[in-house]
Design goal:
The protein is an alpha/beta fold. Among the domains are: about 130 residues, Four Helix Bundle (Hemerythrin (Met), subunit A) (Up-down Bundle), CATH 1.20.120; about 190 residues, Rossmann fold (3-Layer(aba) Sandwich). The protein contains 15 helices and 13 strands. The chain has a seven-stranded mixed beta sheet, with helices on both faces. Strands 1-9-10 form a three-stranded mixed beta sheet, with no helix packed on it. Strands 6-7-11 form a three-stranded antiparallel beta sheet, with helices on one face. Helix 11 links the parallel strand 2 and strand 3. This is Nagb/rpia/CoA transferase-like protein. It comes from Hypoxylon rubiginosum.
Length: about 450
């Protein structure tokens, strides 16, 4: 047969299965045939033990998957909450998976079930603005900053907004000038003030109107001591207003008090100090001064133009600010002989050539120390060593009850000349032993007698 020649096992066709090959009856195997037909046509039903084992295996697989998911979640939380991490967080990795499908930045390895291959290289850092970092030991020192007007409180008056910007940019710099500008701005604030219904001016004006102005000015630049003294005085005047007084009369009373304060404590005080300082200038004197102070300049001009004294001036300048150039030009224009020195290179020689030193103070502490422009202490020490007198001009509004023996307790950082590596202080503190005289509107006293001036002020008030 052809089937046998091919070498394949004989297969019975349906036709052959139905034809008997002999006349003898086929063997009786109906049951076996039936069973074979049933097994081939229907799948074998698993037993109860097999079903139970299968269910147990599926349950174990689900538990293992849930446990693995929890461990992954814990790992992601640990990565995202680690401070100062150098690599991407778990959320960034997940985001990178979707991004990699779009731009191909995350490669997919074959056989890795489509998992993204995350690069272990450094994450690019977006450059940010350099931030000035002050060492912790100097963190108590303040610094002027240009505060955007949009960040100011809505209750800040436009005149105060403009004043804050001028202070932050050092357009208005001297303490007495800043004080006068502040009082004039507060006067405009009071003029435009209206007491809300159900309130009194004495209780509403200070916390809801004056304090926002003060906070804004302080944010722009730290207040000088004279501003602090004047603000305390102004708040006291507000608290003294009788609630029964009409609002218009109360506002007029406050504005009149501010005008009187400016006239007596600033204008008249400067006039008296200028006259006393000019009287001390004699013919042939060589006066050394530092930087540019408006009250020192007026005293020297009065000694020359009004008292007609013939003297010369050595203008020693701050090498950073160069304000002494303006002083030298103004004095030279009035016929005063001026020697200008732009730095401290010839400090000893210039002090030795002078007969006296005349400077002004930003403030005087209760222990007789002087708070002045940075570099004043160096001049005073050199003058003391060479037995040259140092005279200080200071209004009593600049005197504070505080005490200081160094230049770090109270000071201000120069915002224009500071970095993360170094910074410059705007002021220094000169101990009383290096000073000779203090000239104020209340008289000429020794540095140790500054507390007496404070007592006189309390008695007059």
């Amino acid at each position: 047969m052809s089937t046998e020649q091919d070498g394949s096992p004989p297969e019975a066709t349906p036709q052959q299965a139905g034809k008997p090959e002999t006349t003898q009856p086929p063997p009786n195997n109906d049951k076996s045939t039936k069973a074979d037909t049933t097994e081939t046509s229907k799948p074998a039903k698993p037993s109860g033990a097999e079903l139970k084992a299968k269910a147990k295996a599926e349950k174990a697989a689900r538990r293992a998957q849930a446990k693995a998911s929890k461990e992954v979640a814990k790992g992601e939380a640990a990565v995202s909450s680690t401070p100062g991490q150098l690599g991407p967080s778990a959320g960034e990795v997940k985001g990178g998976k979707a991004k990699g499908k779009q731009d191909g930045s995350a490669a997919t390895a074959s056989g890795a079930a489509g998992r993204p291959v995350v690069s272990k290289g450094p994450v690019p850092v977006v450059p940010s603005e350099p931030k000035l970092t002050i060492p912790e030991c100097f963190s108590h020192l303040s610094m002027a900053k240009r505060m955007p007007i949009t960040q100011a409180d809505k209750d800040v008056h436009p005149s105060v907004l403009a004043l804050g910007q001028q202070m932050a940019t050092f357009t208005i710099d001297e303490s007495i000038t800043r004080l006068k500008a502040t009082l004039l701005a507060f006067k405009k604030v009071i003029d435009s003030y209206t007491t809300p219904p159900g309130n009194t001016l004495a209780r509403h004006l200070t916390p809801h109107v004056l304090n926002p102005q003060i906070d804004y000015l302080t944010a722009c630049r730290p207040m000088c001591f004279s501003m602090g003294n004047a603000i305390r005085w102004l708040k006291l005047q507000v608290s003294k207003i009788d609630p029964d007084v009409p609002e218009s009369d109360a506002k007029k009373q406050l504005c009149s008090s501010i005008d009187t304060f400016i006239q007596e404590r600033i204008s008249m005080a400067d006039l008296v100090i200028t006259e006393k300082a000019a009287e001390r200038v004699q013919d042939g004197d060589v006066i050394l001064t530092f930087g540019r102070s408006s009250i020192v300049e007026r005293a020297l001009l009065q000694a020359r133009l009004i008292n007609e004294k013939k003297f010369s001036v050595i203008a020693l300048d701050d090498p950073y600010e160069k304000k002494g150039q303006t002083l030298a030009k103004n004095l030279a224009a009035e016929g005063i002989k001026v020697t200008y020195c732009g730095d401290f290179g010839g400090l000893a020689y210039n002090v030795q050539s002078a007969t006296s030193v005349l400077v002004s103070a930003e403030s005087m502490f209760n222990n007789g120390s002087m708070y002045g422009a940075s570099g004043t202490c160096d001049i005073a020490i050199a003058a003391k060593q060479l037995d040259v007198s140092v005279t200080v001009l200071c209004e009593t509004i600049n005197i504070t009850e505080r005490v200081a023996t160094d230049s770090l307790t109270y000071n201000e950082i120069d915002p224009e000349r500071s970095s993360g590596e170094a910074f410059r202080l705007l002021y220094d503190t000169t101990p009383d032993k290096y000073l000779s005289l203090i000239i104020s509107e209340l008289g000429t006293v020794q540095p140790t007698s500054v507390p007496d001036l404070l007592r006189k002020l309390e008695e007059s008030n």
